[in-house]
Description:
It comes from Lindgomyces ingoldianus. By secondary structure, the chain is mainly alpha-helical.
Amino acid sequence: MAEPFGIAAAFTTCVDCFGYIQLGRHFGRDFQTDLLVLNCTRLRLTRWGEAVSVYTDPYLGRPDATADELKTAKNTLHQILVLFAATEKVSKKYRLSAKARQDLATLSADDMDPVVISLTNKMRELATKRQKGSSIHKITKLIENIVLLIDSLENLFPSPGCIALAKQEAAEIANKRALELTESAATGVDTMLHDAAKEALTGHQYLNLVVNGKAKIGDTFSSDWKGRALGASNCYEGIEVGEKGKASLGTKYGGKDFWED
């Protein structure tokens, strides 16, 4: 069996590497977008790590995992480290070949939209919480290749808990514009976060439903619920409730429960 602690150590190093890259103003198309895309990628990797209990489960959530499969997971993480190392070489080469007076300054908070700063900090906070023991040149190929490797990890060691974690992440994002930025940045990078952000923006859609008895559909919270509910209004279309039917399709945040009548 592959060494589980070797996998955990490689995972931690991979997540750390996202924070070691410096974003140059002229090394790519849009450094604010690049920053969000990279942080989406990092968040996705940490989500997988949490879902498979990378620090505590030597089988990564699969008791039947073979030694070869565990070795493949470790090698995949090592390949992400190789990509980061290659990116560092490109970064140094770019600086050496830069033209006179070309702006090589890295991105700072003063250059960024406040909403992007807030959203970036939230993504980093969520990712950091998932690490134990323990910013970026825009290179499209780097992100594409890391996404492919994370795809491989998720396919080899899948976890249904990832979807729930992505919804929790979307719920912690503070406002509509930040959710819109998240949905855009996650496109082609993190399907689960993209879908969760889109759902938070659009709300649930209930179409062509017929209720003859009692039906409770959608999100619900206990009667002693305290906190914030984020998201757009739900959409209802083609709903039919029978003469003796009763339906609750909207989101319940507290108070008397639907089933108490």
